Amino acid sequence: MKKKSTAIKVSDLIKTGTLLLGVFTTTNAFATSNENQVSDSTPGSTATDFLLFNTQIQNTASSINGHISSALAGAGLLAGTQTYNMEGTTGLNAGDIFSVPYGVWGNYSYSDFDNDLSTTAFDGSTHGFLGGIDFLYWESTVFGIAFGYDNSDIDTTFNTGNQDTDSFTFAPYFGTVLTDTLSLDFNIGYSNVQYDQYRTAAATRIFSSPNADRWFGSLNLNALKVVNNWILGARVGALFAKSNIDSYTESDTTVVAQSRTKVGTISIAGDVAYSYGNFEPFINLAYQNDFSLQNITTATAPAPSNDKNDILMTAGIRYFEKSGISGNLEYSKRLVRDNFDEDRFSLTFRIDY
């Protein structure tokens, strides 16, 4: 009787999460679309929010999605993971699965990126910190909350300026095992972004400090198959996000109107890992299409191509041990997107109790 009640609750939660993302998707799809023009007199945030928004949100959402899988693995719920191969021997006691076991995790990442198109050119880096706590309230479902902070330093070459940003993120999430090969994860989050920037006009620096509110949601269906020591994974997912930059006044009294950016991305990914003792080296390839990416134009040539496709390649190694400690180190590179390069290093540490 208890298991039946749990299944109903999990089913309701899955439906609720899917409905929330559906509402968010519909609202996002029918929101007013605008095309943004960039020139050498454009404030930095007006351009970088269009050009970087998608990859920044993707990095945050994908990090959270990865930790959902780690949480499910930590409870021995994902067949084929190291914790499962160790017969579920983690920091969780075998009889404690219904007494709300939990896990805590932390992540540090460093990203380096640049846009080499002269009319929109910028070059920068980001240091990011993300962490959270999650609970297994039911046998096959995990709920958690993630908190994040990141700082970016960007030289906005197109307007001879610079931009420093601080971003604070709050994101609830959940994941559930559907079958012995399928799992579902969902997160929805909010970020507040504070800009401190300047551009140069007639040898004079013009300063401004706008603020932005960002909302995002991500839903993924994951598959896992084990063949001897090989662990094969696949994922199909969707991400939707929106950013609103409040109107503000620059130091030369120029009033900049409120701007809005939205993006919708679908992705298909494959993952191959090999289990070797406590370690799992892996490689992942993800194709991404930004089907609702807003276009950006320039006042002069050359004009951006507004490329909507890229491939994210990630390689790294995961570590598990019987005490419930796990972690991973990975490197990812964004490929085949016109005029844009991104490299990212990430280190994660997790403890299950």
Describe the protein in words:
By secondary structure, the chain is of the alpha+beta class. The chain has helices at residues 2-29, 44-74, 82-85, and strands at residues 36-38, 102-115, 122-138, 141-156, 161-177, 182-201, 204-208, 211-227, 230-245, 248-249, 255-256, 259-274, 279-290, 296-298, 309-320, 325-335, 340-352. The model is unreliable at 1-8, 29-33 and 80-98 (pLDDT under 50).
Number of helices: 3
Name the poorly predicted regions: 1-8, 29-33, 80-98
Secondary structure category: alpha+beta
Number of strands: 17
Overall morphology: elongated
What string gives the helices and strands in order? Answer: HEHHEEEEEEEEEEEEEEEE
Distance between the termini: 27 Å
Radius of gyration, Cα only, in angstroms? 21 Å
Biggest sheet architecture? 12 strands, antiparallel, barrel
The neighbouring-strand order within the major sheet is 2-3-4-5-6-8-9-12-13-15-16-17
Mean pLDDT, to the nearest integer, reads: 83
State the share of residues found in helices, binned by percent.
Answer: 10-25%
Q: Report the β-strand fraction as a percent range.
A: over 45%
Q: What attributes does this structure have?
A:
alpha+beta; 353 residues; 18% helix; single chain; twelve-stranded antiparallel β-barrel; two-stranded parallel sheet; disordered N terminus
